[in-house]
Amino acid sequence: MDNDKIDKIIDKYQGDASSLIQVLLDIQNETTWLSKEILERVSEKYPVPFSKVLHIATFYKAFDLIPKGSHEIHVCNGTSCHVRGSSRVFSKIKELTKIRPGETDPDLKFSLKAVTCMGCCSAGPSMIVDGKLHSNMDPINTEDVLRSCD
Amino acid sequence: MPKINSPAGLEELRNRILSIRDQSRPCIAICGGTSCHNLDNQSVISAFKEAIKKKPVEGKVDIRETGCAGFCEKGPIVVIYPEGICYTAVKPEDVPEIVSQTVIGKKVIKRLVYTDPNTGEKAVHENEIPFYKNQMRLLTCNNANIDPRNIEDYLAIGGYSAVVKVLQTMSPDQVITEIKESGLRGRSGGGFPAGRKWEAGQKAEGDTKYIICNCHEGDPGACVDRKMMEGNPHSVIEGMIIGAYAMASHAGYIFVGDEFPLTVENTEIAIRQAEEYGLLGENILGSGLDFTLKIKIDGGGYVCGESTALMASLEGRVGEPITKYDHATERGLWAKPTVLNNLQTWVNVPLIINQGANKYSTIGTERSKGTRVFSLVGQVNNSGLVEVPMGITLREIIFDIGGGIREGKKFKAVQVGGPLGGFVPEGQLNLTVDFDELSKAGLSMGPSLIVVDESTCIVDMVKYFLTFLSDESCGKCTPCRDGIRQMLKILTNISEGKGNEGDIELLEGISEVQNKAALCALGQGASGPVLSSIKHFRDEYEAHIKDKRCPALVCDMLSSVIL
Question: What's the ipTM?
Fold first, then answer.
């Protein structure tokens, strides 16, 4: 993302100091992750110390500081999905892709994220792959879904 | 739409909307809550639009995407009006048949109506389904009647009439007296009387005061606030306008978690519409009241539900709690007087004003009034959003509304209050939903009821909660940061068959210290699942430690066997 785009997002909030989190969320919406260059630009433009921007970017769960793979897997790790067997889904994903929640594989094919609750506890365990929800997951249909990702 | 500049003008508009709406006009209402949304209700909606094309009913039937109907287990839910025929788990391929048989032919398709898994009985209408029949739906009943993205739908069901009543006939003092007399207690769990908080907010000195709606809800397995917000956002806005009038506040915030895109979208639309209609902004309905409302999205963090952390996050800082030397009503957001209420507290306000405190206070128990909305989830037949009157027993919620345990298995426990709550075993299911009763039993009135059956290992579940909490601890105070981590280590050992004699006592000891020494509710509450599970399921811990055996066959004990 070039500096102009970052500046534009920051300008939208008119330099309101309380909007730092919203600005980073907006930027990440476009870039999918926050690089060091982006964080430096935000810190310069605001201006706030780089350490403060980094503190926010590492504190909140929404921010990713590593590039994402081409397929984003979100697995619900809410209590309901847990008691219905989401840990078996995580194990299967680890077996197939070698990644754990919060990681991306070296080929940049898959990124895995554990989500607190997707709000569809009744259809759990739930998993979203590239924006599409798959419900009532077990190791077998998890494998089917991942194998269908090219 | 020109701004409405008087309460009478709003009533006039309402009458105009009602006069052009034909109540007997057929309507296909499809649930648009998060859960049904994820179950692809959009394909069902497009299938309906396609199916009525070139049919005699084209142009004579409305298709409406409503707020969350609550019965998430059987989504997407479709209700055909005016008959009120309710179909569950509708797939796009069922749609042509629904249109030809029900919408045009007025016949019921038996295979699509709800069938009770225990008795095999069928229920054609919503109010015949046991899940709905046994609830008391005062706050959530309108969700299924409105399109949350259309303010006129809300006006048509009497929306914003509480604002009209307050502006026309009540003084700020009267509003606060009404809230106090209603006995409304904050729905965040602690149960602080809302009227007293409002009074403190009103009396606080200063021209700038803030009111905040906490719709953060980071609990894993709880999705009450977000579904109420996305399903009927105007009821929250209405409650907040009344609060702003009573406490002379001119700015409010709705604080929403980042993981709820639909909630954010619907709230933004609702705020924009309310502004267009003159219900937010300057000189609301010509009353001289100025009140702006903004939505703030959190960066994701369970601890941000704590009041001081929430305000830090609103100020654009990291959400670390601070010691509460001052009440937020004196020194809160940006060091100004601030009244923070949970979303469920705010939505009760229009109801209290419309019904009157006397009528409202007849619902519930002596010290807990009104209804409570829970997210009933886990291994229960009918999961979803349930609204029950205070005073109902947990047994009634799980077995009458929830329809008992899935696949005929045996009930083991219900986890009340999420990661900071505790377990209730079968013997205590007569415990009632009441702030004081639950707190006496060491539980909090959290938004979730997670039912677990015999196939769940309690040790594994506590391990799950501590993994979540250790990940979510902000790391500021030692008892929370290190206490949870050490407890998790002990529990992991126990679950892997490496537990030692004395581990249970050690867990109890750490919990006790943590409960007293941690800075905020997250650290203090982490002892909840640990202590309650030891109290009620000590035998399971002992089986793991002494016999190296997991009775529910969940924990992987293989490593210890090989050793």
Answer: 0.91
